[in-house]
Each structure stands twice: as structure tokens, then as C-alpha cells.
Amino acid sequence: MARKGTGRENIKNVMAETDQPSWRKLYPNEPVLIPALKVGAWSGASGFLVGGVGGIIRSPTPGLFAIASSLQWATLGTTYYATRGVILRAWQVDSSSPPQDRVYPSTLAGGMTGGTIGGLIRGRTNIIPGMIVFSLLGFAGQHIYNTLDARQSSHTSLHQPRSNTNPSSSDVSPTAPHASNANQPFWKRALDSKWSPMKILSDEEYEKMLKQKLLRVEAEIAILDEDIAKVQTQMEAEKRLKK
């Protein structure tokens, strides 16, 4: 038989569990720093592209202009997403919370980020304007995300197949072409949206697209063969007339 712990050890274990913050109990496996660094990397890459274009237009040294823009965007993206994650944990907003609960943390994180980074990079006179502008951006961005996410969820639920034998069953085959993608990342859902100019293709869709292209190529080859045959016939006819 396994030996049970002593009374003192049990008391220590209970105290260790009760001493943990509430957000750690709710989010035991959700980091903040790593997602924030990923967002910062994407923001930095976007800032480099935008800064490169702006540097070509406005600066005699577009390379330095692009690097400076990339650093600023990366700092803003990392700080914003980390601040937002900390606020969401502090307010105990998780994946089961309504989307509206994320608007205020996003707005607050935008204001804190804009004021802090604006003051550090551009001086104290930009603290208040930075807070106002980035608060509005955080507010509007979260509202836009909630709208697109709700629209995509409703679109997915409308196209979700139902079982013929048991209509009330919620089991859906994982290989169904229109299976629920609520657990997919936002960028995948955004690309699958009807408003996106790009789309993620499945293996079956990609194979179908290749077959269609192959049929077009074969049709063009057949037309070329006919044109070549006509030209050869004309050349032979001309040679006969010359003889």
C-alpha cells in the first residue's frame, strides 16, 4: 500500500494550492510572453515592409527608415499583446466569456501601450495623444474581430452537415469538408472568409484545381496541334502549286 503523507505535509500542500493566484488556477497552461513575442515579430515584419515603402518615398536612407519602423512596430505589438493578456488574466476573462468582455481590456491595453511607447520614443508631449489614438484602435480592432468571428461562426454553423439517422446528434465526422473550424486560429478563419482575396485549400480542392489546369493545358495543346496541322497542309499545298 502507498504510504499517505503526514498531517504536516498535507497542510503544506493545501497552503501551497490556496496561495496560488486565481488567474493561475484559471489559466495554468496559457503563457503571455510567447504569444506576445509572436505578435511582435509579425508586427515588426509588417513595420519593415511599410517602413521600406515609406522610406523610399520620404527618406534618403530607406533601409534605416525601415529598420526603425520595424523596431517601433515590434515594440508596440509585443507591449500591447502582453498588456492585454495580463489584463485578461487579472479580470478572469477566458475563452468561455462573451466576446464583449474583451473590448474593455483591449481598449485599456491600447491606451497603456500608446501612452507608454509614445512617451518613450517620441517624448512626453505624445503620451496623451498616444493613449487616445491607441485606445480607439484597440476598441475598434476588438469590435471588428468580434464581428468577423461571429459572422464566421454563424456561416460555419449554417454549412455544418447533419446526420440523417439522428438529426439531434452533435457528432460530426472530422473529415467533413465543412466541419466546424471554431478552434482554428484567427488568421485561418480570416483567410476562409468570403471577404478574403486568398483562401486555404484542402488537399481535395488543390487536386481538383490541378486537374482543371491540366484539362486546360491539354485543350490548348490540342488547339495548337490543329493549328500546326493546318499550317503544314497549307505549306504542302503551296509546294504543289509551285511544282
* Series of H and E elements: HHHHHHHH
Low-confidence blocks of residues: 1-5, 17-29, 167-180
**Oligomeric nature of the chains:** single chain
Q: What is the count of DSSP helices, taking H or I runs of 4+ residues? A: 8
The gist of it:
It is built from eight helices and no strands. By secondary structure, it is mainly α.
Name a few traits of the molecule.
243 residues, mainly alpha, 70% helix, 0% strand, elongated, disordered N terminus
Structural summary, described in words:
The protein has 243 residues and is an all-alpha fold. Helix content is 70%, strand content 0%. The protein has helices at 7-18, 22-26, 33-58, 62-90, 103-122, 127-158, 186-192, 203-242. The longest helix has 40 residues, at 203-242. The radius of gyration is 30 Å and the shape is elongated. The model is unreliable at 1-5, 17-29 and 167-180 (pLDDT under 50).
